[in-house]
Amino acid sequence: MDQVRAATLTSPRFAINHMAAPQLGLDAFFALARSLGITDVEIRNDIAGMPILDGMAPDTVRAAAERAGVSIITINALQRFNQWSSERAEEAIALADYARACGSKALILVPANDRTGRQAAERQASVREALTALKPILASRHLIGLVEPLGFEASSLRSKREAIEAIRAVDGEGVFKLTHDTFHHHLAGEPEIFPEATGLIHISGVTDPHLAVSEMRDAHRVLVDAGDRLDNVSQIAALAAGGYRGPVSFEPFAEELRRLDNPARQIGASMDFIKAQLGNHNN
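RESULT FIELD:
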């Protein structure tokens, strides 16, 4: 095993999504990241009272990140990106402008998840239409579009292979990459992982032993620990073995995590667990 891969397996480049601690204001969230030795953060546009919903100017966000010494790697997210319309175009332009102004490097693209647009021909055409329209919007602002297939049965884009085929069909390899979400990868049941096309890994665990895979929802997503049923560690190890060298970002959603008195302790414990388990893959 080469030294770079070995180092990646034992010391992944952790990042943190604001959803891991949405109870914290922006400055406190950035401080949490730094307390964990993390300098890559993801901000969101769907947390009430936080940027971007509170109207905070993007230059204020940029200044806060610079003071804290963190880099904003994504804004999460342009929802229902594959239901393209004039309204969606306006939303995409506004969000891309905000991303560029606040210093974000990428924009997460999430498909519709309401049981619409799931027939193969419609599904594939819709993704291509959206990527074709998004390509100049993102490229002109030097942003990467991170397509995140959702593994839910209601999702209109579950397959990473299908996403890659759409990206290639619009000659979008220089603008679009995949988000490999370990939760959604497990739900989709897709065996392939596509490390060469991946720009970000989202991690979270599910520990409830009574849930069927089809019953797993965002509310069940906790920090990764020994009870994890999603096999996060093997997913991360396989992506690293395939050449992935990007961020591994915590994105749990469970309500119980919002009430933690010391989120740094629990997130730090999860980081330590993942690093220790990845070390076993290295032996």
